[in-house]
Amino acid sequence: MADPVVEHEPEIEEEEEEDVVELKVTGLTGVKVLWTLFERRVQPLKARAHPLYQYTGDGDPTRTSPEVLAPAELRSQVWMVIKLLKDVEDDTAELDRHQDGLAPEPAARREGHDSFTPLRARVYYPPLPEGEDTRAANRAKNERLQALSLQKKKDRAAKARRHMLRQQGLLSDESEETDDDDEDDGGDDGDDDDDDDDDDDMGERYAEALGLGKRPAEGGAGGLSSKRVRADSGQGSSGAVPGSEGDVPSSTEGAA
After folding, report:
1. Is residue 40 located within the same domain as residue 104?
2. Helices 89-99 & 71-82, crossing angle to 10 degrees?
3. Cα-based distances in Å from 128 to 124, 133, 134, 185
4. Does some domain include residue 218?
5. N or C: which terminus of the chain has fewer CB atoms within 10 Å of its end residue's CB?
């Protein structure tokens, strides 16, 4: 057996009922709001055909007419909205009072604020014109800034790559000296970026991210660098290491 369907009707608190009664006494009801809305023909509710600064004034044919609608037309406009409600008896009676001019007026009208509000209540200025010279200068400036930014990125990438090669031992001494001279000559290029002081750290981060940082020890004591290998190969085929006196033959031994 299916469960019975229970309809829950919304309960209105006593305070809310008192507020509604007070609003009705002052004339601020749904019909009053709609009536005032259609009577004054509020402009923001209509789609604008042009930007605000292009309207010529109240007489612009593309804007809503400032003329007050006739009572019969107002009633028709309001009825198109409230007829969707279930209980419209009270609203119909209030519509009759509005059409006959017997409904209470809103406070704004009593205070003298019922005048038509022009569309151009504020001054709207069109966009500033741009000549061909201005556009060309702006375009050239943007292209120059983009070229400088691209060149800075390339220089930083090359510097990071050289730093990575130094850590791998793949960069010769002569290349290191040449790169250092180039960096000293081109270091002051008017770049005020704060990232220049962190180029070395950036290179280390690149090397670490690529797994090219500290290499694991090979053969127990660690592998020999390319500099050490070149230094050892320059000592001759004997492989003698300078500085060990026991391996160097004396003059007397040579004579014997």
Report:
1. yes
2. 170
3. 12, 14, 12, 45
4. no
5. N
